Every structure is written in C-alpha cells, then in structure tokens.
Amino acid sequence: MNRIIEKEFFSENVVRLEIEAPRIAKARRAGHFVIVKVGETGERIPLTIAASNPEKGTITLVIQRVGVSSRRITELEVGDVLTDLVGPLGEATHIEKVGTVLACGGGVGVAPLLPIVEALKKAGNKVVTILAARNKDLIILEEQIAKYSDEVIVMTDDGSYGKKGLVTDGMKEVMEREQVDEAVVIGPAIMMKFASLTTKEYNVPTVASLNTIMVDGTGMCGACRITVGGKTKFVCVDGPEFDAHQVDFDEMLLRLNGYKEIEKGAEQEYLKSKDK
Amino acid sequence: MAVTKEFLKEEREQAWRVDIRKLLKNKERTALTRVHMGEVDANERILSNIEVNTGLSEEEAVNEAKRCLDCPDPTCITGCPVEINIPKFIKRIEQGDYLKAAQVLKQTSALPAVCGRVCPQEKQCEAKCFYQLKMKKEPVAIGHLERFAADYERESGQISVPEVAKGNGVKIAVIGSGPAGLTFAGDMAKQGYDVTVFEALHEIGGVLKYGIPEFRLPNSIVDVEINSLTKMGVKFENNFIVGRTATIEDLKEEGFEAFFTGSGAGLPRFMNIPGENYIGILSSNEYLTRVNLMDAANPKTDTPVISGKNVAVIGGGNTAMDSVRTAKRLGAKRAMIVYRRSMEEMPARVEEVKHAQEEGIEFLNLTNPVEYFADENGRVNKMRVQKMELGEPDASGRRRPVVIEGSEYDIEVDTVVVSVGVSPNPLIPSSLPQLETTRWGTIVVDEEKLQTSIPEMFAGGDIVRGGATVILAMGDGRNAAAAMHNYLQDKLNA
Ligand SMILES: Cc1cc2nc3c(=O)[nH]c(=O)nc-3n(C[C@H](O)[C@H](O)[C@H](O)COP(=O)(O)OP(=O)(O)OC[C@H]3O[C@@H](n4cnc5c(N)ncnc54)[C@H](O)[C@@H]3O)c2cc1C
Ligand SMILES: Cc1cc2nc3c(=O)[nH]c(=O)nc-3n(C[C@H](O)[C@H](O)[C@H](O)COP(=O)(O)OP(=O)(O)OC[C@H]3O[C@@H](n4cnc5c(N)ncnc54)[C@H](O)[C@@H]3O)c2cc1C
Ligand code: SF4
Ligand code: SF4
Ligand code: FES
Prior knowledge:
The structure holds two protein chains of two kinds. Helices cover 30% and strands 30% of the residues of chain A. By secondary structure, chain A is an alpha/beta fold. Chain A has a seven-stranded mixed β-sheet with strand order 11-10-9-8-12-13-16, sandwiched between helices. In chain A, helix 6 (189-201) links the parallel strand 12 (182-186) and strand 13 (206-209). In chain A, helix 5 (167-177) runs parallel beside helix 6 and helix 6 (189-201) packs antiparallel against helix 8. Chain A starts with a strand and ends with a helix. Chain B is an alpha/beta fold. Chain B has 20 helices and 18 strands. Chain B has helices at 5-12, 15-23, 26-31, 42-45, 58-67, 86-95, 98-108, 112-118, 130-134, 142-156, 179-190, 207-210, 219-231, 248-253, 284-293, 318-329, 350-358, 427-431, 462-465, 470-493, and strands at 38-39, 53-55, 171-175, 194-198, 235-237, 256-261, 267-268, 281-283, 310-314, 334-339, 362-365, 367-374, 380-393, 399-403, 409-412, 415-418, 422-423, 457-459. In chain B, the strands form five sheets. A five-stranded parallel β-sheet of chain B has the order 5-4-3-6-18. A five-stranded parallel β-sheet of chain B has the order 8-16-9-10-11. In chain B, strands 12, 13, 14 and 15 form a four-stranded antiparallel β-sheet that branches. In chain B, a hairpin with a 5-residue loop joins strand 13 (380-393) and strand 14 (399-403). At the A-B interface, helix 1, helix 2, strand 7, strand 14 and helix 8 of A face strand 7 and helix 15 of B. Bound molecules: flavin-adenine dinucleotide (2 copies), iron/sulfur cluster (2 copies) and FE2/S2 (inorganic) cluster (FES). One flavin-adenine dinucleotide is lined by residues 33, 43, 45-48, 62-64, 66-70, 108, 111-112, 211-214, 240, 256-257, 260, 263, 267 of chain A.
C-alpha cells in the first residue's frame, strides 16, 4: 500500500505519481482529494486525485513543487512508499448535463481539472477547456485534457505557446463567441479571483475548487476555513468546490500567506541541508 | 457488568484485606494528612514540555494508601464511571504489592495511567470519598494512587496483559481510536472477538494524542497502553476514514458483523464575530493538533505553528487551559484566558487552573470578545472585548453572563485561540442516513446498551455525549462491549 509504481516529470517542477491505494481508487469520485505525509516529521498536505484506476488499484497525483512538503513528495522514486495517505476527502463534484461548460485551469490547477473535464464530457456536455500558464514549460496534461474536451485553448503569459495573454482573455473570447452555461475554474487563488470576476460579467454560474491551507482534512481543525456568501465554510468537508461568485477570494489570498515567512525559511533550510 | 455489593463485601472479607485493616486503627488513619504530589517548578516547566506532575514515591503512595479506611460501603466507587474497585487497589498499595494493585485497575480500566492523570477526580471518585462526604476532610488521593500503580507497573517492565479468551472468529469494527474505542476494543478482544480499530488520523489515540498536551499526558504513556491492546490481538488501521475510505457496507462485505462508533466530538465551534477569519486566529483543535500531533514546535518537523507574543485564548474549559499553557511554552510574553463567566463557573479542572496561574497565565474573566482587527496583511493585531456581569442562573444552573453596556476596550494580540466548544464529528452520521441522531448531531443510543437505531451498531463517548470526559468515554466503551457481546450471543443462539 501507498507504493509509488510510476513517476513522470511534466516539467521541472511538476511531477505525476501513480500510487497503489486500492481502497481510495475504488471509493474516489471526481473532485475528491487525499492528504499525504512524507516521513515521520512530514507535514500533512492536500493533493487532488487527478485520476484513478480501480481495477489496478491505483490513484494518480500531480504535484507542483512550491515548498518543502511538495518537494519531498516529488523527490520520492518508484518503489518508495508514502508514509501516510488518507482519503478520499471532500465532496465530489456535482456533475450534470448543463450544455456548454467552460473549464479553466491555471498552472497545477490543471491536475484537479482533468477528472472534472472527463466527467463533464461523459455526462454529455460540450466542454471548452482553457489551459493557462506563465510559459510553455508549465503547460501540463494538454493531451489528456484534449481527450475529453471539444476544444482546448492554450494561453501563456509570454506567448511562448498557444495564444499570448491571461486566462481571462481566453475566457472572454469564448463567452463573447458562444453561449456558456457553466464555468469551472481551478488554479492559483489570484487566478480564480479574476476568472470569477470575468464570468460574473457574463452572468455565467461558476464553480471554483479552493486550495486553502489544511491540517487534518476531516473538518477537525478549521485551518481551511473561508467565507462563502458571508458564511464561514470549511473547504475540506464543505468543499473544495464552491460557487465562485460567493467566495471571498481576498480573504482566502490573505489566509494562504499565513505561514509564508516560516515556510520560506523552512525551504531554504531544507535546500541547504541537502547541499551538505 | 456492575459490581454488586455482595461481591465487594466478599472481596473485603479476604484474609489479606482483613489483616491490612488491622494494622492501624481508623483514628490513626484519619489523623494522617493527604499527600501532595510533586510538581516541576513553574518557571522551569514552561521552558519545555516536561510533565508537570512528578508522581508519588513509594513511601508517599503507601502513606496515602494508609489513609483509606477500606469502608464497608465504599461510596467512592459510586463516583467512578467505570466502578474501579478503589479500596482493593489502594489496600494492595498499602500492602506493597503494586503490581497486584495495577491488576485491579486493569480489570475495569483499559487506560489507568491515563485516567490517573486526566480524570476530574475531584468531581468523581474523590468527591464521593468518606473523608469528603462525612468528615469534611480532604479525600483520599485516589487519582494520584491510581497513577502511581499504573506507572509502577509500566516502569517495572512487568506489564500484565489481560487474559484473552480463545478466538471466536467474529469480526468487529471499531470506528475511532479515542478512549471510547480503545476501551471497547480491549473488552471485546478479552472475550475472543477479532477486533480492528479504524482511525482517520495517522496516529492512534484520539484526543489523548492530538488534544491533551505532553506536559499533562506524555504520548509515550498512551503508546504503552495501545501496545497492550496490540498484544491482546487488537488490530489497528490508521489513515482510514470509515464512511470515506470504505463505507460500513463495504466493511460488512468484508465480514465485519458489528460496529462500535467512538468517533468523538472533533468539530470546532467559532463565535462568528467580525474578523474571526484573520490570520493568527485559530481553533484550539488546530493549535493543539499542530503542536501535539504534528510536533510543530520542534524545528525538525515540517509543520509550522505561529508562536505569538500576545496570545488570547477564548474559553474556560480544559481545552482552553491546555491551549493557553501551550502558548506560554511556545514563548508567549502574555498568555491570557478570556472567559465570559467568573472563575467559579470555569469548567476546567481545578488543578489545571491552579497550574495555569502558577505559570503566569492572566485570567480576564467576565470578558467576551466582540470583534477582531488586523494589519494590512490580514494578521490579527487587536481584539475588542466587552465586560460582562453575572445575572440569573440559566438552564445549566450557572449564572448567565450579561453584557455591561459601554464597557468595550481593546487588547493587543497577535494570536487568538478560539476554544468555545466542539460539536460531534458528522462523518459517520452523514454517511449513514438510517442512523438516528439528535438535533445537536449526537448519535441516539439506548442508555444502557448503547445500541443505536441500527441494531449492529453501538456508539459511545463524545459522539453520543457531546464534549465529555475520558473516563465517561471509557465507561461507554466498556458498557457497549458487554451489551454487544450479549447481542451477538443472542443472535447466535436464536
Ligand atoms: C483540496 C486541495 C487540493 C490540492 N491539490 C493539489 C494538487 O493536485 N497538486 C498540487 O501540486 N497542489 C495541490 N494543492 C496545493 C498543495 O496542497 C500545496 O501546494 C502544498 O500544501 C504546499 O506545501 P509545501 O510545504 O510544499 O509549501 P509551503 O512551504 O507550505 O508553501 C509554499 C508556498 O505555497 C503557498 N501555499 C501553501 N499552501 C498552499 C495551498 N494549499 N495552495 C496554494 N498555495 C499554497 C504558500 O503561500 C507559499 O507561498 C491542493 C490544495 C488543496 C487544499
Ligand atoms: C484539549 C483537550 C483536553 C481535554 N482534557 C480532558 C481532561 O483533562 N480530562 C478528561 O477527562 N477529559 C478531557 N478532555 C475530553 C476528552 O479528551 C474526551 O471527552 C474524550 O477523548 C472523548 O473520547 P472519544 O473516544 O469519544 O473520542 P476522541 O478521543 O475524540 O477520539 C475519536 C477518534 O475518532 C476518530 N474518527 C472520527 N471519525 C472517524 C471515522 N469516520 N473513521 C475513523 N476514525 C474516525 C478521530 O480522528 C479521533 O481520533 C479533553 C479534551 C480536549 C480536546
Ligand atoms: S478512573 Fe477516574 S473516577 Fe475512576 S477511580 Fe480512577 S480517577 Fe477516580
Ligand atoms: S470512600 Fe474513601 S476511605 Fe472509603 S474506601 Fe473509598 S477511598 Fe477509601
Ligand atoms: S483542514 Fe482541518 S478542518 Fe479542514
């Protein structure tokens, strides 16, 4: 259990792992996540289940290195075992046939977007997907996403691949051009904030999948709390998906930085310890 | 499994007990003064997580044991939720046979070293001691003696593992590894059942591990008790959320025939006042979990924790006291309790309040927060509080706090720990729509049998009672095991 059986680099800092976890593979639905801890002194961090294979008994995680804990995971090799892995957590995505869905993934947000795109397509929707990143190297899972999308639009900040521009530019183009019935946005909080403001202009109902800081992931601590429609919600049990137009993204952005200083120091120290 | 008067009487007439009673006259016994357990000096203990109470020496324990009159009608037992045979274990201590004393404890309590430390003895067994009831004297230090016997056994390396009946092959699932689940598991294993305990977190022990701090209950002590259960054949599966990782139905398919839910009251409450989501404001569950379960204060671990300089803890229970004392140990200059009632109404154990005071914790009683303020980064820097006064008693018999108009003032803070109570963990009830619950989210059970509306599911501890105590959770685990055994036997014979 918890053994890594495949590892692949999507880019220098983004890694895909396939992990033996038969129970989770069987129980999970699109939108679910797991909590992972590497090493006895490791931290518990949430990661979306990007795909699962119940027959084989495996789940797939796509991890972007941003700090110590995500780095520890990406440094594991095939045959290594995750110290702790628990899930599936969160509410599954509500999948329905609504017509045309605009799916937008920013950076590593494409990983959690993949299973949702797949499920939306299978439910009979027309799916237009926008993949956005700073540059070409950071665009991931394009092929897999294309398999379940009627159209894929790639946007890069620097124009090194696809169209030059922000995710919101691509979104506007699609919403100008055709009737969009629903939007799903997943990515960095700042991207979700602006994507959500954009769909609001066009009156398109929008779902965002929030990536707050978590500890237990089971509703026990409240570290993941945010404000939705004026009410406090726990992302790990009430979410991670919410009506994007109700989410207080500014508060979420602040809360995400709650441990920034400590974490930065921790990463520098970790890298130093590895140099020795 | 209630102990009968006849049984107690029979035991009391055993030769060794009679002999011990004869050693001293009752008058001599009552003339002795109650032992005082040693404590690490407050200035020293706040520098680390060292356990505050140092335990009794053999001599102190024997002297204290002499005070116990071995009453013909031992009222103390009625104060103990698991009905420990108190005079019997105490007389074993007086006799110098500490290992036998520990065995007496183990007949009814799966975690004596834990209870000896965290039980609210002053409200339970000791409140019903003859000394307290009839002589208005300090009661026998039952809790201290319990801790002594359990510690002695552990340190002697001669831990007795309770006898286990021959395996009957019946598979039982336990949901949650807090004191309720552990006690239940032990009792079922003793009767020969094949027991598996499922725990959502990566560590076994429930609140004993993630909530109660090292300085009150070292994790190593909980681990020894869990080890005993492993030796009895109990299996543990951590990182397993019943209702998520697998459903009750899945487990039934895997051959589990009956279930005990001891999933606790893990959901933190907030006050829903303005600014409560600013950075630096966290639930006591989060604060204590980071420090206790994740060992966040240790620089070798990856989990961070904010160690504030001005820390306010909102609430007056054990959890609040543990949080504020933890803050002190993390280096807070000012660690404050902000509680809306007065000192007398505080639900925390008397000992905890006393220790907190010694450690320099400030108590802002009759004070309630109304709003938080933050700097430009969203980090809390100020809290507005208002003063309260006590009005008429409410339903709980405690005098209701009433706001004093115009009494607001501001306090500088950089960390706030909200410790105003917990709600039952909704994971199990929400995955079992047939399960009957109250409107507070607790599971409805038959009071004696602890059986839920689903016949093969029993439940106990905080998920049934709301936030209660370790010993009540253990009592539930014990009663549920007895009732489930009967239920399964009846089913088998039907
Ligand atoms: C439900 C959920 C699903 C997620 N799924 C994935 C996934 O599939 N793949 C993936 O790579 N990541 C995912 N994340 C984010 C991932 O959990 C964080 O990147 C990770 O916890 C960071 O830990 P760290 O120690 O490496 O970085 P830290 O040192 O903790 O943080 C480094 C930097 O990242 C920021 N950060 C910290 N935590 C988060 C967070 N939760 N989200 C965004 N930024 C954060 C910090 O502000 C800091 O600037 C998910 C988060 C949630 C809540
Ligand atoms: C900080 C603090 C201090 C306290 N101090 C004292 C004290 O001094 N004296 C005292 O008597 N009491 C004290 N208490 C109260 C006491 O700890 C609780 O009443 C007691 O632990 C309840 O036991 P339990 O077995 O019902 O549940 P818990 O100890 O809460 O354990 C429940 C376990 O179930 C797990 N779980 C939940 N859902 C699932 C699921 N679906 N699948 C698998 N596992 C699951 C949880 O992760 C948890 O580990 C304190 C509580 C706290 C929080
Ligand atoms: S378990 Fe608690 S109540 Fe019972 S005798 Fe021990 S300290 Fe007293
Ligand atoms: S009531 Fe007090 S004195 Fe009497 S048996 Fe119990 S502990 Fe001893
Ligand atoms: S992560 Fe602890 S409550 Fe959501």
